Amino acid sequence: MGLSEPITFGSHGMDEPAKGEKNKAAEVNFPKDAVDEWPAPKQIHSFYFVKYRLHEDQKLKVKLDQADTGLQKKNQARSQLIEKLRKLKADRAQKIGFLKGLNKENKQYRDLIDEKKKEREPLQQALGQLHGGRDTGSGICSSEEELNHRVSFDVLYFSSAIYMLLFPYPPTCFLLCLQSFAFHVLVFSET
């Protein structure tokens, strides 16, 4: 055989089988009775005997019936409690979801307010400088009307800072307290 000749599979070019090959299928010795040589695993059968009393004890039967009805009532109460708990959990989850939405909205409002405060800060500083430059010469008011005018001006234009200092009091109460305090200072400074 040369390299150019085609090789057909399953044939060696001879009618006889090759040395290492014999018909192994003929030599395999299968068992004749497979049940004898390959037995199935043994099966175990279990039997249960129920003890049944021929005569029934009426006292025991009454106690068993009472226990059974008590168990049924407790199971019903338990299922009602579980249902209430599920409703409460669902309501709680709904409220938590609502609060999360409100927290996001609140954060947006706070960011907006902070932004507006930052925009307003230079204007308040400029207003304070203008107000402070005008009042440098006059530290003490000459009359109660002038003091009232100054206090009302401060309350109107610097109310955010003053209101933050005295948050629990309403602005009108603060104005009256501030006016009476300044009047007393004026009275004490003149004497």
TrEMBL record:
Recorded coiled-coil stretches: 71-119
| Membrane topology listed for this record | Single-pass membrane protein
| Chief place where the protein resides | membrane
Keywords in alphabetical order:
Cell membrane, Coiled coil, Endoplasmic reticulum, Membrane, Transmembrane, Transmembrane helix
Gene Ontology CC annotation, any one: plasma membrane
Q: Where is this region: Disordered?
A: 1-25
Locate the compositionally biased regions of type Basic and acidic residues: 13-25
- Superkingdom to which the source organism belongs: Eukaryota
Protein's UniProt keywords contain Coiled coil: yes
Q: Where in the cell is it found?
A: Cell membrane; Endoplasmic reticulum membrane
Family according to the record: Belongs to the plant Proton pump-interactor protein family.
Name the record gives this protein: DH200=94 genomic scaffold, scaffold_369
Organism of origin:
Coffea canephora
